[in-house]
Amino acid sequence: MSHKPQYAEVVVEIANRKVDRPFHYEIPAQLQEAVKPGVRVLVPFGNRELDGYVVGLVPRADVTGTKPILAVREGEPVISAELLQLARWMALYYMCPLVTVLQAFFPRTSGAGKKLIQEWCSLEPDVTIGTILSIRKRAPKQAAILEQLQQAGPFLVPHLLNITGADRRSLMSLVNKGVVRIDELEAAPAAEPVSALQEPPELTGEQERVLAAIKPKLAPPQYEVFLLHGVTGSGKTEVYFRCLSEVITSGYQAIVLFPEISLTTHLIERFYRRFGSQVEVLHSGLPLKQRIMTLERIAAGNVSIVVGTRSAVFAPVPRLGLIIIDEEHENSYQQEVTPKYHAREVAIVRAFLNKAPLVLGSATPSLESYHKAREGKFSLLKMGNRVEHKQMPKVLVTDLRRELKEGNETLFSNLLKEKLQERLQEKEQSILFLNRRGYANLVNCRDCGQVIKCKYCDVSLTYYATKKVLKCNYCGYTRPVPMECPECGGNRVRPLGAGTEKVEKELLSLFPQARVVRIDSDTVRKKGDYERLLGIFENKLADVMIGTQMVAKGLDFPGVTLVGVILADQMLNFPDFRARERSFQLLTQVAGRAGRGTGLGEVVVQTYIPEDPTVLAAADHDYERFFAEEIKLRRLMGYPPYSHLIRILVTGKQEELCETGSRVIADRINRYRGNAGAVLLGPTPAPLTKIKNNYRWQLILKGEDIKKMRQLVSVSLREAAQGGSLPRGIRLNLDIDPLGML
Ligand SMILES: [Zn+2]
Ligand SMILES: [Zn+2]
Question: Is the pLDDT of residue 686 over 50?
Fold first, then answer.
């Protein structure tokens, strides 16, 4: 007697809250085998046919008149039970339709799948070292291919060409010589025992100690979150490598995430050299077809290490044994479109569901993570020294107020001028860094340096030049620009800021002989501009590079011995409660650009508030001190990690409707929010008031109990919609614990 479930629960591919629930469908006899949780199916829906995902099987339907499933989409990866569970958690936590989460897991294909045949290259068994050596003399590119195969075993052809830099012609000539072979296979051919890949370097004492702490959780894997706080250049990557080999030799798979900007060819090569064809790379830039093939190989268990950006956290590895997130503080781990998830938060849940360890690495951990480590929720590991005894760059802070008093009205302090002069004489390179994110217009007092802040929210007030007012982007508080500084009574309250163009102009008037390259949104317009300009600097055809945050990250120029931060105040006072945290991270990163080579680097930070604790802590490379100061302020103002935030964004073509809609929602929330113990900020226009002809208004809910806050929001939104007072023509967008609120 069979008790096969007769009905499938299906979520359909419409991103609409109203249909965000499973619908019941009959399973026709011929599809009994194929229909299971995690497959994509075609179903009738109203008078249409839609794709959807099976999320469960049940013996009976709770409605009458169910329709049958029409077809099962073949040749697509099945979403595993574990990932389905993760998707459910995400939909609930981030308040988004389940189907949008499932769609984020796998890119969609159309029509039936094909077998996934790929080209694999391997050495013919009778090739000797002698053959390789003799080929090396005549054809170095071909020899590079042979050496790679000899070290790492069979390789996918595109990867092999990629890392050796050889072309297909060289490869084919090896095939013709009978030295290597290419097979078209679905999976990697059985590899001969792999001889040593790249020799691992010797570990430093610190690396040893950190590794010893992680090891007990690796094989067999156990859940634990490690926060690895290591200064730039302390050798975190080598620690990751050791953990990875431990995990994969015991038959598990691992996922390693990097921020978009640091997943460079150079980094990927390091992985290949160390782990050969056991590595696969997943990022959004891959062509769709290749991405699907890669996902298939991963789901089949044929990949031991998945290296990728944010969305690789969903990589369908069957036996997850470790997740690593490098530079865990980076903003690019948060997705800005629905589902608006944070890869670190997802990784914590996924590691927990799989009983696997998670390693978070950073030189400047996010306040949230460090706070959790302090509370004992994460295990804190520290590496405070650079490998090879390299020294941290020397950071000098200059006071722009004094420069002004002494009559220097240029963008360059005397100290920075002097240091630039030295570099030009010594033919060493400099980078001038300017943080500029467009919209943030601020005013500050030129006498005491202070920027005027909102007394309720502790964020800087934004200056609206047309109306000559200052306004808080969080709560809407508005005031005229004061004639006198509220801090010191000085009468020089002025708009703050400078652009890269002005920096270039002043630099050239000071040093007409300097060769300058400027990198910003004006000079980087078309594809290839960025690489071309960097190339000029890299090849030492320029003495000074001027740039925005584009130049701050991931770049490695051994010739640079001086970095100048033109105006730290712009980032320090960015109207966001995370401005100080971002500034500390950015200053640390920028400082890391100086002295990557052999010489000792110097950094000059120019500011109107040289006594600012964030600047001073960054200058001393003292994360602990920065954290101690900042966490106090967060607690005082009730910001994360002491609270959660939910942002409700209301957008539409007509501004009045956005405002009315926001007020209706605010009204509902205010009616109930007492029960949730939450505070409502706004409604107010969002900092970016209009994008692509859509006006934007926002409400920010702040509170400690995220569960109650979610409930409050969904009840309020539902009642606002049902009450009929919510205008048509607006769209609502929810953001749970957003990192930015532009
Ligand atoms: Zn003042
Ligand atoms: Zn405010």
Answer: yes
High-pLDDT (> 70) share of the chain, %: 93
**Is the link from the previous residue into 393 a cis peptide, with omega within 30 of 0?**
no
**Residue-averaged pLDDT of the chain:** 88
Enumerate residues 6+ apart whose C-beta is below 8 A from 473.
Answer: 459, 462, 575, 684, 686, 687, 741
- Tokens of residue 107, six digits: 């890119």
Q: pTM to 2 decimals? A: 0.86
Ligand 1: centre distance to CA 632 (Å):
24
Centre of ligand 1 from the C-alpha of residue 489, in Å:
6
State the Cα–Cα distance between residues 389 and 185, nearest whole angstrom: 48
The mean per-residue pLDDT over the stretch 679-701 comes to: 89
Among the bound ligands, the one closest to the CA of 444: 1
Residue with tokens 């240029």: 410
> From CA 402, how far away is CA 211, in angstroms rounded?
49
Question: 3-state SS of the chain: helix, strand, coil percent to 5?
Answer: 35, 25, 40
Q: How close is the Cα of 642 to the center of ligand 1, in Å?
A: 31
Distances 678 to 508, 638, 671 between C-alpha atoms, Å? 54, 11, 12
Average pLDDT over residues 646-674: 93
Peptide bond into 641 cis (omega under 30): yes
The alpha carbon of 107 and the centre of ligand 2 are apart by a number of angstroms equal to: 41
Say which residue the tokens 């010489």 belong to: 599
Strand, coil or helix: what is 257?
Answer: strand
Helix (H, G, I), strand (E, B) or coil at 254: strand
> CA–CA separation, 302 vs 316, rounded Å?
11
Structure tokens at 335: 């997705």
Q: How distant is the alpha carbon of residue 486 from its chain centre?
A: 39
* Ion ligand 2 contact residues with beta carbon within 5 A: 454, 456-457, 472, 474-475, 477
- Residue 250 φ/ψ, nearest 5 degrees: -95, 15
Q: Are residues 228 and 361 in contact, defined by beta-carbon separation less than 8 angstroms?
A: yes
> How many Å lie between the centroid of ligand 2 and the Cα of residue 629?
21
Ligand nearest, relative to CA of residue 576: 2
- The residues with which 254 forms a beta bridge, in sequence order, are 305, 322
Asked if residues 735 and 649 have their Cβ atoms less than 8 Å apart, the reply is yes
**What is the secondary structure of 123-138 as a DSSP string?**
E-TT--HHHHHHHHHH
Q: Please name which of 349, 369, 372, 457 lies closest in space to residue 702, comparing C-alpha atoms.
A: 457
Residue keyed to tokens 């995220």:
706
State how far the Cα of 367 lies from the Cα of 124, in Å rounded to an integer.
54
DSSP string, 532-572: HHHHHHHTTS-SEEEESGGGTSS---TTEEEEEES-THHHH
Ligand nearest to the CA of 609: 1
Q: How far is CA 4 from the centre of its chain?
A: 44
Q: Which ligand is nearest to the CA of 475?
A: 2
Domains in the chain and their CATH numbers? 7-105 (3.40.1440.60), 118-185 (no CATH), 205-296+304-388 (3.40.50.300), 394-436+499-633 (3.40.50.300), 644-736 (3.30.70.600)
Rounded CA-CA distance 625/401 in Å is: 25
Q: What is the pLDDT of residue 135?
A: 80
Q: Using N-to-C axis directions, what is the helix angle for 414-426 and 500-510, rounded to 10°? A: 70
Q: Is the pLDDT of residue 599 over 70?
A: no
What pLDDT does residue 192 have?
Answer: 45
CA dihedral (554, 560, 561, 562) in degrees, to 10, reads -80
Residues 202-234 have pLDDT tens digits of 999 999 999 999 999 998 999 999 999 998 888
Cα–Cα distance measured from residue 673 to residue 679, given in angstroms and rounded to the nearest whole number? 7
Q: What is the DSSP letter of 260?
A: G
Mean pLDDT along residues 33-37:
92
